[in-house]
Fold this protein.
Amino acid sequence: MATYDLIGATGCATGIAHTYMAQEALENAAKKMGYSMKVETHGQTGVDDPLTADEINNAKAVIVASDVDVDADRFAGKRVVQVPVADGIKEPENLIKRALSPSTPIFKANLAGAAKSAVSDEAASSGTSFWHLVYTSLMNGISHMLPFVVAGGVLMAVSMFWGIDSANVKSAEYNSFAAMLNTIGSTAMNLMVPVLGAYIAEAIAKRSGLIIGFIVGMIAFVNGTGFLGGIVGGYIAGAVILLLQKVLQPLPNKEFRGLKAIFLYPVLGAFIAGTIMWVISTPMADLNKGMMSFLKGMQTADPILLGVIVGVMCAADFGGPINKAAYITGTALLAQGNFYFMAGVSAACIAPPLATGFAVLMNKNAYTKDERSAGYVNFLLGSTHITEGAIPFAAKNPLLNIPSFMVGSAIAAVLTYVTRITIHAPHGGFLVLGLVNKPILWVLWIVIGALVSGALLALIAGRSAKKHGGVVETAGVDIFGTGDAGDEPAAPQTTAPTGGNDATVNPADILNTDQVEFDLSATNRNDALHQLAQLAVAKGIATDAEAVYQKYLNREKESSTGMEQGIAIPHAQDASIERSAMLVVRLTKPVTDWPSFDNQPIDTMISFLIPEKDNGAHLHYLSNTAKLLTHQSFIKDLKAAKTPVDVVQLFRNPHIED
């Protein structure tokens, strides 16, 4: 029986990309931190790798990174962290630390059986529980609705290959097969609103909510309230069932459970929620018509403004709720026969992932090997209308990268609207070019938008890499010497490090006061490295000074280990080195022939000595030291240290202010 230190669950509205990206990020982060972890995924095809009761019982903590309901009640009695799926992608290490922290409260199931997405007492007291439930239930509705929209929209679009009026029996273009496709497709599309309402209610009140949600969703559809009616109806249905559960709670479950589920909840729920929906249908239908008319008007009156709005929305959260708001509006208009709006939405969704591919092509040295690979894969994802592949790039520098994505998406959408391009399918990207009235022009506009975003991303990444000396954000300079430039980048840092160090690996673990030297005199770089090698032998760390010295020189030939502000990180891995160790040496006079990122002479060496057979821990020591050197306060304290004790204490408990 397999056991895991941590378990988790991920899910997103579409169940396509976010879900599996969060799973991979969490499992990889756990592995790097020395923990075993299993994550079940709630994707479009169902639940993969489901957690067993034994796995849940034996786990130390749980991470739920999901925008849809994943039945959190089964984790009762464990420390549980619940966040949106995007957080699982952006900050997996942070979530693992939170989950294992003693300050994280024990999760308690919702004993009333109402909303299974209830969170911890602490979260509930701050109001997080309510808004988390609102958010996850909406995403649950959208997740289940999208396949109906895609299936129906594509079949309706295909039917038009025989002519726009091929489904109209009175038209000369009429074709019986096309009419059948149109009927099947329109039936699927008509289920959009009921399914949306049903699964919003299901996330709030489970099966009883699902039943009433379908009923109220049908009322919303019949009365013409559109997807807004489906959303409101879903919340009404869920709230009514919760109310009935509370009111009928005094009835003992043993005798009345079946009566409640089969009779009382459906009948009373349908009457109460249906009546409310019926009453508000008229004003909601007017609101829906008004909104659709406004959007239609903008397509003609101000396509540039509309394109900017759509572009910003689609690139704001890359498949998240803001992006989905634009997408749902497009599908609603598509169902009403408006094929212009969706063309701009699709263009704005396709541009961001393509932009990442162009960015890594334009400035390869500013990205790690993994980032370059992801960028190339995004050419495929973007071409099929999957925006989520842009998330890791956006998360790397969100304040600059997200606006860059918005610019490109807005350009693609504006050009699409200005040239009156239409599309008859709600999804598919370039796979459905046959359903676009001006396919070549549409692709051109998308590529132009993606190229603009890509150029901005490449410029930002290049400047960031130059600023950080390639330590965290670039693979162009391989400071660790673990392979070809960029093949083994530093651990990506998506959140500020706590004290600058990984929770499980502290450079001070391989440093003691005997390994700190002040006032070493050297005439040049090679002399400094030669004396470092001799120092390693004198301290009992290595047995062959010449072998260590040659490894130092070989490392420098690959790329200089000179950093910034007078600091270098030379290191050597050799069979003569008996244990992992760190030397910190200050020179009496800086050496000027040691290349560095800011072209300043080197006066401080932080050297790592690594045995030939190493379990990879040295990479953590290296990366954590590199992270520390991105903080001015740490560098200032290092330069000001007066004794070896000061240096060891600084690495053990760094005081980070910036």
